[in-house]
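$ ./design --mode recover --in tokens.txt
reading tokens...
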């Protein structure tokens, strides 16, 4: 397939942000906002505006969905492996843009380039590569129903898929949705998050060099005004959403009204259990990685409740603090920076509110780590020092509610059964880890922890190929795996051929 245009990587994120300002991407083209209704995208490290994007509403959503409907017939008719190859080609194309995408997402989200943003950009290509490679797994079964009848099942695309994403890992979460949707033969309309609409727009622009026009569209806008019409649009046959529990309920209700399927990846309050026999240094490194301190704790799977055996508790806290103290908070685009900023003023106020609440709670001992940047250019930046709270119970607000900030509760325990019960005593059930050298404990906990993603002696993020999703209030459905593509982006059709 010939490229419609060839994009040159642009590693100046401010210039790239300006060049994307004011556009949606519909039917293969960057399309200006249909009205003058735009909103600002700001650099959270300085507070300065870097671009304006369309505040799209019903009419832009309708335009994008119509383009997707037009493209879907030919896209679905393309042999699955050809679609897969095309998506694999897209991954190769993206590989050349990892640096610019990392820089752009660092600029708009405040996530540090070296520790987070560049890593996120490379996962996007990885997700496309993975799904491109499993296209031929879109197969059905033959059913031994009757010797006179050939009975088979086939996998059919759903049609047009609406994708609603949040701001914390916008490119990665979009890729884990659009790649399986596209490979399965669906066309897609993405609604980006208000706070982080630029890097995802750029990803879609890059992919549109290879994908037929209308197969992948993206619009920016606010939740109720833009996301709402996308869910409600009569031609959208499936919604896949990542965001808060409250919005997830709104989306699920609207999908229910239309009787269309919805995959929901919602919040988490993920427990980490450190047993008396754990390798302490590995557990300390795992806590720092698990808390996603380099992402300012803005992760659904953040290890925000850490249950530590009383024999290790004090040493564990001291060691985590010593290591986090060495992490440098600063300009997200600086290679030396480990920890960047919170995404927005609203989120900053929310996180600071939780920290104040925690400090006022009886028995709380907050351990503040690292240091705020001294650079005058960053004085308006939304930096928050990571805080480890000890002395709080699993019943405290900080241990029950999702904070989405660099705040964790370390809770002492003396007995495995109590730790397990407390870990499961949560409305959420997304991820969990246990740290132990005892095989029996590890296997027992992996069976009994109420979470969709359980790890033993490690704490890595979602990986293409592994099913990811939650139980309880953490959501419905699974993402990132082959089954996710089959179960969530296709309909199974039964075909019976009577041979008599
Ligand atoms: P967060 O609090 O992390 O921003 P939200 O759940 O509010 O999480 O947002 C996640 C995504 O859902 C964003 O793209 C947002 O614009 C979108 N959204 C918010 N409200 C609605 C809604 N009523 N209908 C559809 N999408 C929405």
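writing sequence...
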């Amino acid at each position: 397939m010939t490229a419609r245009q060839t994009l040159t990587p642009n590693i100046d994120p401010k210039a790239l942000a300006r060049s994307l300002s004011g556009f949606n991407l519909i039917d293969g083209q960057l399309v200006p906002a249909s009205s003058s209704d735009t909103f600002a995208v700001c650099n959270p490290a300085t507070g300065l505006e870097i671009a304006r994007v369309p505040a799209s509403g019903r009419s832009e959503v309708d335009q994008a969905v119509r383009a997707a409907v037009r493209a879907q017939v030919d896209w679905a008719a393309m042999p699955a492996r050809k679609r897969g190859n095309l998506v694999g080609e897209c991954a190769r194309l993206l590989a050349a843009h990892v640096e610019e995408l990392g820089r752009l997402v660092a600029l708009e989200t405040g996530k540090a380039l070296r520790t987070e943003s560049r890593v996120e950009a490379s996962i996007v290509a990885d997700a496309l590569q993975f799904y491109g490679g499993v296209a031929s797994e879109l197969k059905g079964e033959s059913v031994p129903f009757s010797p006179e009848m050939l009975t088979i099942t086939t996998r059919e695309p759903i049609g047009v898929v609406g994708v609603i994403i949040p701001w914390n890992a916008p490119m990665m979460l979009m890729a884990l949705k659009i790649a399986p949707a596209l490979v399965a033969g669906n066309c897609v309309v993405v609604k980006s998050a208000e706070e982080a609409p630029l890097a995802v727009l750029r990803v879609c622009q890059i992919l549109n060099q290879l994908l037929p026009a209308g197969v992948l569209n993206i619009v920016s806008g606010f939740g109720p005004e833009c996301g709402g019409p996308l869910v409600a649009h009569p031609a959208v046959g499936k919604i896949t959403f990542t965001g808060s529990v409250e919005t997830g309920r709104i989306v699920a209700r609207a999908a229910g009204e239309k009787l269309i399927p919805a995959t929901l990846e919602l919040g988490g309050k993920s427990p980490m259990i450190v047993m008396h026999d754990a390798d302490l240094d590995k557990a300390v490194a795992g806590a720092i990685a698990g808390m996603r301190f380099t992402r300012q704790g803005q992760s659904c799977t953040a290890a925000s409740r850490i249950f530590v055996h009383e024999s290790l508790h004090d040493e564990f806290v001291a060691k985590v603090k010593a290591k986090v103290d060495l992490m440098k908070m600063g300009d997200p685009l600086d290679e030396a920076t480990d920890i960047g900023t919170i995404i927005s003023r609203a989120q900053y106020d929310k996180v600071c509110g939780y920290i104040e609440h925690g400090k006022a709670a009886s028995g709380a001992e907050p351990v503040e780590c690292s240091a705020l940047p001294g650079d005058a250019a960053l004085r308006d930046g939304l930096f928050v020092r990571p805080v480890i709270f000890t002395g709080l119970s699993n019943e405290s607000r900080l241990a029950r509610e999702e904070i989405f900030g660099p705040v964790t509760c370390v809770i002492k325990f003396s007995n495995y059964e109590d730790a397990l019960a407390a870990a499961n005593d949560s409305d959420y059930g997304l991820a969990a880890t246990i740290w132990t050298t005892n095989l029996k404990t590890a296997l027992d906990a992996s069976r009994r922890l109420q979470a969709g993603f359980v790890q033993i002696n490690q704490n890595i993020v979602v990986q293409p190929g592994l099913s990811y999703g939650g139980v309880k209030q953490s959501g419905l459905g699974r993402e990132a795996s082959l089954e996710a593509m089959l179960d969530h982006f296709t309909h199974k059709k039964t075909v019976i051929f009577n041979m008599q």
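exit 0
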